[in-house]
Amino acid sequence: MTSSLTMRDLVSPRSILCPLEAANKKAVLQGISNFAASLVGKEPLAIFDILWERERLGTTGVGAGIAIPHGRIDGLTQVHGFFFRLSQPLAFEAIDDKPVDLVFLLLAPESAGADHLNALATVSRQLRDQKLCEQLRMAKDAAALYRLLTEAPPAKAA
Questions:
Q1: Average pLDDT over residues 124-139
Q2: Which of 70, 80, 85, 116 is catalytic?
Q3: Which DSSP letter does residue 65 get?
Q4: What is the pLDDT of residue 112?
């Protein structure tokens, strides 16, 4: 992968779940781990443990109702992205203390290096677009979410 990474490189129609039912932050991380596990061929608990450990270092709630949990998973061969819209906004210890309802999960190979950082940058740039986030919140289903994520013009670097 290169720095010209796009959302289409990260997500597929199968990697989007809407709505995700969860009662709290831990349940969100468990739910996204369970969903992602079957698509990447890893154990849900292994993914959850990596995500939970990452949250202990500092919240992945980046503000404006968005969280970008991420981690490196042994045995992956590429970066995988997953998008979730929660059924209701939840406290996520976000940097702005606002509840989260849009979650983008990134799982990268242990050796991803720059690819992991490029993927994080791509996702965070795209989700800084307030208009796009409003559309994501209004989308009727996973297919509409996929279209919005992959057809939006790439956000400009900050």
A1: 96
A2: 70
A3: T
A4: 87
